[in-house]
Amino acid sequence: MTVGAMHRARSWRGARLVVFWVVCVLAVLVDQVTKAAARASLVPGQPRELIPGALDLSLVKNAGAAFSIGEGAGPVFVVFAVVVLSFGIWLVWSRDALPMPLVVSVACVCGGGVGNMIDRMIFGCVTDFFAAAFVDFPVFNVADVFITVGIAVSVILYLVMVDAPARAAEGSAPSGGAPSKSAGDHRDA
Fold first, then answer.
1. Percent composition of the chain: helix, strand, coil (DSSP 3-state, to 5)
2. Given 31, 56, 119, 144, which residue is catalytic?
3. Residue of 31, 56, 119, 128 marked active site
4. Would you say the pTM of this structure is higher than 0.90?
5. How far is 82 from 149, CA to CA, in rounded Å?
6. Does residue 119 have an active-site annotation?
7. How does 26-61 read in b/e, with b if 16+ C-beta sit within 10 Å?
8. Is the separation of the CB atoms in 125 and 62 below 8 Å?
9. Phi and psi dihedrals of 130, rounded to 5?
10. Is 31 a catalytic residue?
11. Dihedral of alpha carbons 78, 79, 80, 81, sign
């Protein structure tokens, strides 16, 4: 690798980390501001209609994870959030070919995880407040949206932007047999 290529790789790595941290911090801020607003303006057991027939605001304190699974295991979820954040940072730092859209989606997952981790550390539970009015679905929050959408988008982007091109490159590589002759490979005798 040339010195110029090393500098470009380092600057690209730095740009990915900056984007990762900006998106992650913005996700945490949006999550925490909306949760603070929900705690200040909603009363548990008294839902408010937000979008008629579609979405209500209903304050719920969730001591578990998604769908209230693992209720009472808050410290485990805090450790899990730290592991996810650490993995996200490592992924963004170590993968030179990681596309920027994938960096953003991974940052959304990490930001959502940190947002819920903050709630668990400060309040001992997660503040949920979005309630689907048209279907029986667990109450959720902005961090949950960042996590869910971030995971879905990350999987799709990985399959489209990383895995598919890698498979295509493998499929076009010579199979180890005799080299094929192309139009410019022939020799006149």
1. 60, 10, 25
2. 144
3. 128
4. no
5. 19
6. no
7. ebbebbbebbeebeeebeeeebeeeeeeeebbbbbe
8. yes
9. -90, 125
10. no
11. positive
* Residue whose token pair is 């997660």: 126
Dihedral of alpha carbons 10, 15, 18, 19, sign: negative
d(CA 169, CA 45): 56
**What letter represents residue 47's amino acid?**
P
Q: Looking at the predicted structure, is the pLDDT value of residue 159 above 60?
A: yes
Residue in 152, 157, 76, 69 with CA at minimum distance from that of residue 117: 76
In this structure, what token pair is assigned to residue 46?
């008294």
Which residues have C-beta within 8 Å of that of residue 17, sequence separation ≥ 6? 89, 92, 93
pLDDT computed for residue 173 by the predictor: 62
87-111 pLDDT, tens per residue?
A: 999 999 998 878 999 999 999 999 9
The per-residue pLDDT for range 107-135, each reduced to its tens digit, is 999 999 999 999 999 999 999 999 999 99
